[in-house]
Design brief:
The chain has 496 residues and is an all-beta fold. The chain has four domains: 41-119, Immunoglobulins (Immunoglobulin-like, Sandwich), CATH 2.60.40; 123-250, Jelly Rolls, CATH 2.60.120; 269-359, Jelly Rolls, CATH 2.60.120; 373-492, Immunoglobulin-like, CATH 2.60.40.10. Helices cover 2% and strands 45% of the residues. The protein has two helices and 39 strands. It has a six-stranded mixed sheet, with no helix packed on it. It has a five-stranded mixed sheet with strand order 9-11-18-13-16, with no helix packed on it.
């Protein structure tokens, strides 16, 4: 191990992002789901567009049979192989790069979903041993590649050799925690003598990212290792069959949004900006009339930006009228509802809470008239319904603003033989229960369904789909997928 310069103090210094978001904890079982298979991980956790990828799944019970598989994307099809635990991911040529969910199921059970990723670059699997520079040098990787690996045991360090070109900037981006792996990964970049050039740990979540411009042609080495997550007293390097990761190495330029220079805004406004250097503040002025009811939203963490943004509204004299930091316990991105006290000009000020900044401290700002909105969260990811019985679907509805019409919750996309009556939702939101009923003659079925919240007013009807939060122990930032609107329903027919 050459990582003798890294210590717990450094680890805590970099552990800044505490977004109370959600990701899947695979030991999670509810009373609505009867002992599902423990689908813990799959390796590799994705593949390139237009390819067929062989993958192995791990988890208790998966070695006994080949389960069927469901994917949240129609262009990504997962099929069981000739042996339990062996699956194939078929990725269509017209698939879109990005994450999707995979769930395993049979006639009586369904697993929680796992995240896989569709990539656009060549995919390479690690080859052990690759703990040292000498090991890595035997297999030198090209730029614009995704390296798939597993930190499979305690103390494991994976090393990859990358052929670099002088003056051509390289980005190393790791997805481990973001896939749902129980890891707090880190990496460092070394020259061909093994001397550290730079290192990376936390970004918008626990996953590291490094950008570097080589000073000469030659070989660079990237080392990967992980601490345990959730944190433990033992800060040594950890590993297991579930410590799966994907490392993308590319010299392609970032796809940057079109940035708006701070200045005068015309409302409503939607723009992209950047806190490009430490201590910087972006200031946008706008005119408003007394009584204008404005909704001001800023997205940064949700865009995987390291910006921990603050919002502040000032009057023409520079007096602070209202400010916001975190929206709530579940988001570091600020939001404001603000009513204009009088006609005049006002300034919206955006900054980083800790006075940090850089070219990747990006944000998206929306300023528009306030309109009532609703969100709904399901209590779990899957439900099990037996013939002739019922099961409750619990959801929490939150409203923002006043609705003049009724709000109803309803289950849709239910299989034949399963029904559910819609229920009224209190105007101020709250906990609601839907009851799914199965006839005695219902046919066995396994498929997703949906729960909709319908709000009606004299001049408008809006439908919002409820999502389930994907739980994780002590979340420390976003995953590639935060929630899903496809809860699973297993319908069990009466035994003959």
């Amino acid at each position: 191990m050459r990582w003798n310069m890294w210590n717990e103090q450094n680890r805590m210094t970099h552990g800044r992002s505490f977004l109370a978001c959600v990701v899947l904890h695979l030991s999670f079982v509810t009373s609505a789901l009867a002992e599902p298979p423990a689908f813990d991980s799959l390796f590799p956790a994705g593949g390139q567009i237009g390819t067929r990828v062989e993958t192995l799944v791990s988890g208790k019970g998966l070695e006994k049979e080949t389960f069927q598989a469901w994917s949240s994307e129609s262009h990504v099809v997962v099929l069981g192989g000739d042996k339990p635990r062996k699956y194939f991911i078929n990725i269509a040529k017209d698939a879109v790069p990005g994450p999707c969910l995979v769930r395993l199921y049979n006639e009586s059970d369904a697993s929680p979903p796992r995240i896989i990723e569709v990539g656009k670059h060549e995919e390479v699997l690690e080859k052990e041993p690759n703990d040292t520079l000498a090991d890595a040098k035997k297999i030198e990787a090209r730029i614009n590649v995704t390296l798939n690996g597993v930190l499979e045991k305690a103390g494991d360090v994976d090393t990859f050799a990358i052929r670099a070109q002088k003056g051509k900037r390289i980005r190393f981006e790791l997805h481990g925690y973001a896939l749902g792996s129980p890891m707090d990964p880190a990496m460092r970049l070394l020259d061909d003598r093994g001397v550290e050039i730079t290192s990376g740990h936390d970004t918008y979540n626990l996953d590291p990212r490094i950008e570097y411009t080589p000073l000469s042609d030659g070989t660079l080495y990237v080392e990967l290792f992980a601490f345990v997550h959730p944190p433990a007293a033992d800060v040594g390097f950890k590993g297991s069959a579930n410590h799966v990761y994907r490392l993308t190495v590319t010299d392609e330029p970032k796809q940057m949004p079109v940035l708006t220079e701070p200045g005068k805004l015309t409302l409503p406004a939607l723009l992209n900006g950047c806190i490009s250097k430490p201590t910087e503040e972006d200031r946008y002025t706008f005119s408003a009339k007394k009584g204008d009811d404005l909704q001001i939203n800023l997205r940064a963490q949700r865009l995987r930006s390291p910006l921990d943004a603050t919002l502040r509204i000032e009057d023409a004299a520079g007096k602070s009228l209202q400010q916001a930091d975190d929206a709530d316990k579940d988001s570091l991105d600020p939001t404001l509802r603000w009513k204009t006290p009088k006609d005049g000009d006002y300034t919206l000020v955006i900054a980083d809470r800790f006075q940090h900044g850089g070219t990747d401290y990006l944000y998206e700002l929306t300023v528009k008239p306030f309109t009532p909105s609703v969100i709904a969260t399901l209590d779990t990811h899957a439900y099990r319904l037996e013939a002739g019985k019922t099961v409750e679907v619990k959801l929490t509805v939150k409203t923002n603003g006043t609705f003049t019409g009724k709000i109803k919750a309803q289950a849709v996309q239910l299989p034949v033989g399963v029904t559910a009556e819609s229920v009224d939702v209190p105007a101020k939101g709250g906990d609601v229960k839907l009851t799914l009923k199965a006839t005695a003659e219902v046919v066995a079925n396994q498929a997703p369904f949906a729960v909709e919240i319908v709000t009606s007013a004299p001049d408008a009807v809006e439908t919002v789909t409820a999502s389930y939060a994907i739980p994780f122990t002590e979340p420390r930032g976003d995953l590639l997928i935060m929630s899903d609107t496809h809860p699973w329903l297993t319908v069990v027919a009466k035994k003959p």
